[in-house]
Write a structure and sequence with these properties.
Length: 463
């Protein structure tokens, strides 16, 4: 039985789907104006873990993820330039070129991190008519009102505004930025639609003239379109709780007249060196930057799995080194199980399977599940351990089918004779005595070893 923590109720709850056997799920996706950093990617690893646990439990998934390619303003609220337009101007490209480029890189990163792509990927710019209709319905129902610069949601009309973040309206006012728009009825009212100035690149015809959607409306309109009035789970990062998701609840429940999301789940932030990630501190690393430093993307995934998704995770290069070492050790330890023909008794395997399943079903306790895997791989070599690890990997997504041979098999030292011949061959090569070098290579081969030359010497491997 799967239990998950619902941000709305602040409780771990037993998970039940609306439609038996199928989980419907919406995940807030990236704003594609820049490279995703490792913090953003942690949130998508969390989404992926949830999807994998649901599948492990036998659910089918209908998952939707949006791609924000319009409407997300610099302030996260209703002021400042559109992030897409700013990047387009800076890079002298069109917003569409910017969106296509960064979305491609994003999906490549997801693939390298073994993050499964949700079934439906929905781009905001391809759903403008759905959003206009949504805004119109809110205006017709009395929740939206027009000002000189757009259509705003009247939060005081919506009973329950603030229930996700548990902030009352006064606290919302305190949190709102310095007011520039005096036509708003309440400082925390937010834009459903913005009227476009002439120089705004992205604009569409609407009942309120040329304009573009607010950031929040895309998620309400697209989740409704693909998942219906009420769906099972909505995910995002914790930063979405107080504004983006609060606004989404207000829009969706105001329009539909019912609760639209059963479980809200949020991934905690990643910090770097104990502090916030920010461009000015130059600590917003990308996966490419990690691979340039010699780390593998799946070791980063391992790093994330080692912390519970509701705990802050502090990224440091020492921590990343430890994750890479542990990940390599894990794949190496599985090698001996893969090459073994021995079996482990059924009860022992069953015990690990139960422990693993209980851990992942307890609000995705992946650190505990990894611990179970580690205990299991310490068993004596056995094919069953390997096969069970592969079943666990359906949740972990660590690519454990690609186990690697240990660099030096500790239990099988290279025979002295082979080492000696390899050294002699090395000396022969230094003297450019190629014939002798080739002869020694053959002799080494006859003893069951290959020798590979590198710039700092040579490497011996068993054939
Ligand atoms: P954005 O592209 O800015 O809309 O963000 C994409 C996702 O990354 C959102 O779900 C954010 O909540 C999440 N996010 C942003 N910064 C971090 C961070 N430092 N750690 C974890 N998730 C983050
Ligand atoms: Zn969203």
């Amino acid at each position: 039985m799967l239990k998950v923590y619902n941000t709305l109720t602040r409780k771990k709850e037993e998970f039940k789907t609306i439609k038996p056997g199928t989980a419907t799920m919406y995940s807030c996706g990236p704003t594609v104006y820049n490279y995703a950093h490792i913090g953003n990617l942690r949130t998508y690893i969390f989404m992926d873990m949830l999807r994998r646990v649901l599948k492990y439990d036998g659910y089918k998934i209908k998952g939707v993820m949006n791609i924000t390619d319009v409407g997300h303003l610099l302030s996260d609220g209703d002021d400042g330039e559109d992030k897409m337009e700013k990047a387009a101007k800076e890079q002298k490209k069109s917003p569409k070129e910017i969106a296509d480029y960064y979305a491609d890189v994003f999906f490549r990163d997801l693939e390298r991190l073994n993050i499964g792509k949700p079934e439906i990927i929905a781009k905001a710019t391809e759903h403008i008519p759905d959003m206009i209709k949504y805004v119109q319905d809110l205006v017709d129902k009395g929740y939206g009102y027009e000002t000189r610069d757009g259509i705003y949601f009247d939060i005081e009309k919506f009973d329950g505004y603030g229930k996700l973040s548990r902030l009352n309206l006064d606290e919302q006012i305190a949190g709102a930025r310095v007011e520039v728009n005096t036509e708003k009825r309440h400082p925390a009212d937010f834009a459903l639609w913005k009227k476009a100035e002439k120089n705004h690149i992205m604009q569409w015809q609407s009942p309120w003239g040329m304009g573009y959607p607010g950031w929040h409306i895309e998620c309400s309109a697209m989740s409704r379109k693909y998942l219906g009035t009420t769906f099972d789970i909505h995910t995002g990062g914790v930063d979405h709780i107080p504004v983006h998701h609060e606004n989404e609840i207000a829009q969706s429940e105001a329009r539909e007249g019912v609760k639209t999301v059963n479980v809200w789940m949020h991934g905690e932030f990643m910090l770097v060196d104990g502090g916030k990630m920010s461009k000015s501190l130059k600590n917003t690393y990308t996966i490419d930057q990690l691979t340039e430093r010699g780390y593998s993307p799946l070791a980063f995934r391992y790093f994330c799995l080692n912390a519970h998704y509701r705990k802050k995770l502090n990224f440091t290069f020492e921590g990343m080194d430890a994750a890479q070492t542990a990940y390599d050790r894990l794949t190496e330890s599985l090698y001996k199980h893969k090459s073994s023909a021995e079996r482990t008794n059924e009860d022992t395997i069953k015990k690990y399977e139960t422990q693993f399943s209980e851990a992942v079903n307890d609000d995705l306790n992946l650190p505990l599940a990894l611990g179970v895997l580690w205990t299991m791989v310490k068993e004596k070599p056995s094919k069953d351990v390997y096969e069970t690890a592969l079943r666990f990997d359906k949740v972990l997504g660590l690519g454990l089918q690609n186990v690697r041979a240990p660099e030096k098999a500790d239990d099988e030292p290279i025979p002295e004779q082979v080492s000696l011949l390899a050294q002699q061959r090395y000396d022969a090569r230094k003297q450019k005595n190629w014939a002798e070098s080739d002869r020694l290579r053959d002799e080494i081969k006859e003893l069951g070893y290959t020798v590979t030359d590198g710039k700092d010497g040579y490497e011996l491997n068993k054939i």
